[in-house]
Design goal:
358 residues, Arc Repressor Mutant, subunit A, Rossmann fold, two-stranded antiparallel sheet, 9 strands, methyltransferase
């Protein structure tokens, strides 16, 4: 929150940012083309030697001079490159991050492949509370029903985005979870089974039951079988939004990673109540989420705030990357206390350890 309490920009800076927003789609597409066509990489390779001119870029990339020229001139304003008085282009720090920063690459591919066309329907999604942009990907109520059916390049970008943050957080969070001595865990929203695999490697005594939509459960089951973990990991296909279908019972814990942000506040309350029925009276619910208000850096908060719009326009129409205070209110409304909160896990995550009230 500390980043968003004052307007610290001068009028001139604010107007410049306003123009950046107005031309936002142009900025995005130029940066992606400069990256994907190899122009930024070529300029990077020549930067130490004084840069490279337009004609040589066109010749070495096979792109016509006109195309290279308009891209380069746009890139000057964006801040991807600089140009010397003799016409040689060199890479800037921003250009370097577009090329090499894993976070930037994952975010750019996710926005382009999964979100870009769908975001055009944001105004309608705000009005209806439905993911009006999802029709650009397929005919499903939410994106989750369609994940296993997405074209390979879109599926790749979705999972790369989803796993990038959790993969960094998992090594640290494993010790925070298994210090509670859990042995029989229900994982809700298992995706490709990464948490289950990491858990069985970390804790030789734990058994994981993955509950997820049939399409996702089958993807995870395939991975589990490849690793020979059938005796350690079980599956329970289920749609958590169908309140007529009970959760399996008798677990000492429930694990949900980057899962509850896929639901509205009312749905979070409903899911948490059913989680409470799935665990023993002294059981734990572990929730790993990224909250924009708990971030150490403004850039991290910005990324999470913008990711919320994916949920609105494309994913499901009614969820977001939450302010922790809004999220925790729903947890408490469902009848749970937060017995431990660990912020600063990985790039952006918080672990909430919950127990039933009373």
């Amino acid at each position: 929150m500390k980043f968003f309490t004052k307007d610290n920009r001068s009028a001139l800076e604010a107007k410049h940012i306003a123009q950046f927003i107005a031309f936002g789609p142009v900025v995005f597409q130029v940066a992606k083309v400069m990256r994907d066509k190899g122009i930024l990489k070529l300029i990077e390779d020549k930067t130490a030697g004084g840069g490279i001119n337009l004609q040589d870029i066109a010749s070495q990339t096979g792109i016509q001079e006109y195309g290279v020229r308009v891209l380069l001139e746009s890139s000057l304003g964006i801040g991807l490159v600089v140009v010397s008085e003799d016409g040689n282009y060199s890479l800037t720090k921003t250009g370097y991050f577009i090329l090499h920063d894993p976070l930037t690459i994952v975010n750019m591919d996710f926005i382009h492949d999964v979100n870009y066309k769908g975001l055009f329907h944001l105004d309608k999604a705000i009005e209806t509370g439905k993911p009006e942009g999802l029709k650009e990907l397929g005919d499903w109520p939410t994106v989750y029903e369609g994940l296993s059916k997405l074209p390979p390049h879109i599926q790749k970008s979705w999972f790369a985005f989803d796993h990038f943050f959790s993969d960094i957080a998992f090594p640290e969070v494993l010790k925070n979870v298994y210090k509670y001595g859990v042995k029989n865990m229900l994982e809700i929203g298992g995706n490709t089974g990464k948490w289950a695999v990491a858990s069985t490697s970390y804790n030789p005594d734990v058994h994981i039951t993955i509950m997820d939509l049939p399409g996702q459960a089958s993807m995870a089951e395939k991975k589990v079988k490849e690793l020979g973990l059938e005796n350690r990991v079980s599956f329970f296909p289920n749609n958590v939004l169908d309140e007529t279908k009970a959760f399996p019972k008798g677990f000492d814990s429930v694990w949900m990673s980057q899962f509850l942000d896929c639901f509205s506040e009312a749905e979070i309350v409903s899911i948490m109540k059913r989680c409470g029925e799935a665990i023993t009276d002294d059981g734990y619910i572990f929730i790993l989420e990224a909250f924009w208000d708990t971030q150490r850096f403004e850039t991290a908060a910005f990324c999470l705030q913008q990711t919320s719009i994916y949920f609105t326009a494309v994913a499901n129409g009614n969820s977001q990357m939450y302010d922790s205070r809004v999220f925790i209110k729903s947890i408490k409304e469902a009848g749970f206390d937060i017995v431990e909160q660990v912020d600063g896990i990985g790039l952006s995550h918080t672990l909430l350890v919950c127990k039933k009230v009373g």
